[in-house]
Amino acid sequence: MKITTIKKLTAKEKALAKIRFVEKGPELCVVGEKKETELTVVAKKAKVDARVLRTLIRHIAQTAHRNHIQKLVIELDSTAFPKCKEYSAEWFWSTVAENLILAEYEHIQYKSKKPKKYLKEVIFVTTEEAVAKKGITRGTIVGEYTNVCRDIANTPGGDMTPQGLANAAKRHCKLPKTKVTVLNLPAIKKLKMGGLLGVGQGAKDKPKFIVIEYNGLPKGKKEKPTVFVGKGITFDTGGLQLKPGMAMYEMHMDMSGGAAVIGALGAIAKLKLKKHVIGLIPAAENAVGENAIRPGDVLTMMNGKTVEVLHTDAEGRLVLADALHFAKRYEPKLIVDIATLTGAALSAVGQHANVVLTKDRALEDTLRGLGEESGDYTFPLPLWNEYTQYTKSIHADIANIPVDGGRYGGTINGATFLSHFVDKMKWAHIDMAPRMTSVPSDKLAKGATGEPTRLLIKIAEKY
Ligand code: BES
Ligand code: ZN
Ligand code: ZN
Q1: Of 12-16, 149-153, 295-299, where does mean pLDDT reach its minimum?
Q2: Whose CA is nearest to atom 5 of ligand 1?
Q3: Which CATH architecture best describes the domain 2-146?
Q4: What pTM, to 2 d.p., does this model score?
Q5: CB contact at 8 A, 323 and 261
Q6: Is the Cβ–Cβ distance between 451 and 376 less than 8 Å?
Q7: For 158-462, which CATH superfamily applies?
Q8: For residue 345, how far is its CA from the centre of ligand 1 (angstroms)?
């Protein structure tokens, strides 16, 4: 999709499908759907805040597509939306572009007959052309790489193996000042990553440890990096404690955290941020087989701690633990891990928020704020010391689930387990399981949402 700007509406553009904003009636609707020349958006501009803006833009793009409209002309100025003034005009235009691009995405990789893309061009008539162009440039990159994340996450487990994920990282992060290194089984063994090795030992496809490093700092300038760690379980059967029935549905998306790290690093490099950012993805398949880990097995992790595997389906925390320990070598200023870690996160917040857990209150607030700004909404749960007791083990140093089975606080227990591997690093854990797949009110295609790619880019820009 081409997104352009002009100062004045000419006769030529007048002939195209035109968006008209009307200040009455319900807040969010596009009427005149049958007409091919005009879409009327009924939206009280004074009520359109950041959240409404996103769904409104998506709705416009989808309505245009449904009506087979190829070109749209929209008269738009950020100043007409007082509730969006909290952020800059550049943010406004970036948000508009991002959401046009997110709305046009469909997962068509496996369709033998590719569906037609109707909306080819959107022309904005605006008095703020300079800042609009700047915002649209950023938003286009952010939107496109979020869609890269969605493509990776939507790919079935049979194709998106640990090697497949490594290939995706190499393909999408083949950019200036960016280096992708893939550690194979011997290297992972040498590092003694017992968690990653243990989880991966039941599968035919061997685990990989993917390192993406982007250094956009000016020559001579040194700065501690930000490290993103993404869960890369390419399929989660649950292991020997096999997931029942529908619980295994969509578990090819258990590498969504890793996909978001690839998408974010690609975008960060493309945006040429003057930052140092590292992405780490421990990739493995949690399979069933004669070599799979058993409940009760004890793993020795990279940091030397022993872990009693009380549940083979709590595998994400095992692979992330080694990656978090590995991250220490970079002496990062901040480390954020992103994982589809627990079903309990969905019980806690439904499907409308990522969950953030950190012991650092200021960081918690920052991430919540950046969640609002980016569109990847994020809400906190506690990570207090009271919860450490639930990681006690009878036979080893710690257990991957509470010894009593852990009926309560599953998301907190997962984060508490990870906290044993971060020591003094500034760290936040994002359980993105609630946002793994879209819900109808998102006005996005079914399947992966691409979250929290936008949030990670925002963290890299602002932290
Ligand atoms: N990948 C799952 C969590 C998940 C569930 C993500 C639903 C997205 C949607 C994770 O590995 C898992 O199985 N967690 C267990 C933990 C339990 C054994 C303590 C869970 O949530 O049931
Ligand atoms: Zn699992
Ligand atoms: Zn999992």
Answers
A1: 12-16
A2: 343
A3: 3-Layer(aba) Sandwich (3.40)
A4: 0.97
A5: no
A6: yes
A7: Zn peptidases (3.40.630.10)
A8: 9
